[in-house]
Write a structure and sequence with these properties.
The chain has 147 residues and is mainly alpha-helical. The chain has one domain: Lysozyme (Orthogonal Bundle), CATH 1.10.530. It is 36% helix and 5% strand. The chain has five helices and three strands; from the N terminus they run αααβββαα. The chain has a three-stranded antiparallel β-sheet. A hairpin with a 4-residue loop joins strand 2 and strand 3. The protein starts with a helix and ends in a 15-residue tail after the last helix.
Length: 147
């Protein structure tokens, strides 16, 4: 977790503060507006829980992986499959530049997350979702958010 915080801080500093750390309810509203509530059968609370454990609600989060790929943005979209970065080749299944996932506008992040969850793994594509959110009572993630 310390490493994630350090990498996130460095990413924010290198971007000149262009990212945004959402509050829980701000993110819940943005995800609801983006059509995530019930998308592919996953509740809004699942998406909020996922974003918390993947990035701490930080759009500028960047984490390097041992395999040489990098995860980007609020959903930690992987450069090996889903987005294209300058580090190497990618399937780029979301047809997006990884750098574009690091700004406060999360519409491209939402579109890519929708693409990821359409695959057979669904939300199990995210290890942190499996570890922290799957088969849990998630109502607290949207409680009091008026969504």
């Amino acid at each position: 977790m310390r490493m994630l915080a350090l990498v996130t801080l460095l990413a924010c500093l290198s971007m000149g503060g262009q990212g945004k750390i959402f509050t829980r309810c701000e993110l819940a509203q943005a995800l609801k507006d983006g059509g995530m509530d019930g998308y592919e059968g996953y509740s809004l609370a699942n998406w909020v829980c996922l974003a918390f454990y993947e990035s701490g609600f930080d759009t500028a989060a960047v984490v390097a992986n041992p395999d040489g790929s990098t995860d980007y943005g609020i959903f930690q979209i992987n450069s090996g499959w889903w987005c294209q970065d300058s580090q190497g080749s990618s399937e780029n299944l979301c047809h997006v530049l990884c750098q574009d996932l690091l700004n406060p506008d999360i519409q491209d992040d939402i579109s890519c997350a929708k693409r990821v969850v359409q695959d057979p793994q669904g939300m199990e594509a995210w290890d942190d979702w499996k570890k922290h959110c799957e088969n849990q009572v998630l109502t607290e993630w949207v409680k009091g958010c008026d969504v």
